[in-house]
Amino acid sequence: MRRKSLNTATCPVARSLDVIGDWWTLLIVREAFKGASRFSEFQQGLGLAKNILSSRLRKMLADGILELRPAAAGGSHLEYHLTHKGIQLRLILIALRQWGEDNLFVSGEPMTTFVDSQTGQSLKRLRPIRQDGTEVGFRDLVTKLVVAGEGVD
Amino acid sequence: MRRKSLNTATCPVARSLDVIGDWWTLLIVREAFKGASRFSEFQQGLGLAKNILSSRLRKMLADGILELRPAAAGGSHLEYHLTHKGIQLRLILIALRQWGEDNLFVSGEPMTTFVDSQTGQSLKRLRPIRQDGTEVGFRDLVTKLVVAGEGVD
Question: What is the value of pTM for the model shown?
Answer without folding.
Answer: 0.90
